Amino acid sequence: MTKLCKNCKYHEPFWGYNNYYGTLDTCNHPELKRLLNPVTGKSFKTMCYIMRMKGEKCGPDAKYWEEKEPPKPKKGFWANLFGM
What we know:
By secondary structure, the protein is low in regular secondary structure. The chain has 2 helices and 3 strands, in the order E-E-E-H-H.
């Protein structure tokens, strides 16, 4: 099984501009140290493709990869209406 970032629970998609290609998606794993922005004090987000490069923290073998939980099934209109 290939460990894709989009299937990792720490993956955050980037929906900012016209089309979504996945290039600017970020990794939010707590073990990955991030630089702090000296102006705002918030941490810079690290892009997934950089973290998966050879020699980086997660690397090609996806050390920090954890599978996402499957989405919960949504209740239908009638189930919500009658509390089923």
